[in-house]
Amino acid sequence: MKILILAFVALLLNASPMKPQYSIETSDMVTDLFLEGSTLYAATGVGVVDVIDTINRKRVETITLPSVKDFLGDLIPPKIYSIDKVGSKIVLVSQGKSGYRDVYIKEGEKLRRIIDSSKEFFIKKGLFVDENRIILGLLSSEIILYDIQKETVIYRHAIKERNSGGSALGDMVLSEDKKILVTADESGEVNYFKVENFDHIKVNKGQNLDNIYKIDYKKGTVITAGQDRRCAIYKDHGSPYYVSGEFLIYAAGLSPSGKIGVFASTIENALQVFDIKTKRKLALLEGHNATLTDFAFVNETSFYSSADENRILFWNLNK
């Protein structure tokens, strides 16, 4: 296996920029992705989630959210900001009335709004902790643990409450076991918390000097996408570092093992793939025509990527 990986790396180092293996059309610009087995969920900017069978590369279902009133009182389809799934439940954070956010739970044929604009939450992202609880990240850099069945707040804490000041939330992600929450904000810091009680574990900083747009966390490794054109790497064991991009880095992701990283590296929206341990550049991928929004890895050498455009690209580095 090791020989095959080395051969694969050697081929990539001598290759021209790679093109996607195929693309899948979506209802609108894709804002967030979630992959479960062979089913890909693509949240869009027009209140629609495309449910895609990746084997047949076809949309098999659409989830449509109710229209909302904009600031002028006109009914418009709501932008969906994030999607997550556990078991049979899907959680969606979407645009609400007066700029606030709504949160929906989809289970089977039932779509239920559990948070509406009356709560006045500016939610950036929602993730399942388990089937009964979700964790919400607010733009104000506050974190809410929310009980779905009781529709009540379990706790609400500011990320920076341990000291003065705060920064707008950039992104957040849960560890694979859902016990650790990792956050990033416009200060360039990466903070780690225990989900159950929001105890602060540690902070990593110094690699990003400005706003972090996106993070991923796999097997003890964090990757960041920075406004300062830095893709930073923090590992539980090992020295932190960053890889420079040519333009603002809007998205970054990690393979399931945390050994391969990818980030949007150029003004032309090319993707740079690199080895986390050696920092070696493995491949440059070209195909997107707009700002990158998310990645969804299938395995160590293949993944989907989305952007502010109505299609998803599939990459197979072995090809």
Shape: globular
CA radius of gyration is 19 Å
Helical fraction equals under 10%
Distance between the termini: 17 Å
> What fraction of the residues are assigned to beta strands by DSSP?
over 45%
Rounded average pLDDT: 93
- Secondary-structure-based class equals mainly beta
Biggest sheet strand order reads 1-30-29-28
The biggest beta sheet, please? 4 strands, antiparallel
Say how many strands there are.
30
Task: Provide a descriptive summary of the structure in words.
- By secondary structure, the chain is mostly beta strands.
- It contains 1 helix and 30 strands.
- It has one helix at residues 2-13; strands spanning 22-25, 30-36, 39-44, 48-53, 58-64, 68-69, 75-76, 80-86, 89-95, 101-107, 110-115, 123-130, 133-138, 142-147, 152-158, 169-174, 180-185, 190-194, 200-204, 212-218, 221-226, 230-235, 241-244, 252-254, 260-264, 271-275, 281-285, 292-297, 302-307, 311-316.
- It has a 4-stranded antiparallel beta sheet with strand order 1-30-29-28, with no helix packed on it. The chain has a 4-stranded antiparallel beta sheet with strand order 2-3-4-5, with no helix packed on it. Strands 8-9-10-11 form a 4-stranded antiparallel beta sheet, with no helix packed on it.
- The protein starts with a helix and ends with a strand.
- Residues 1-7 and 9-14 have low confidence and may be disordered.
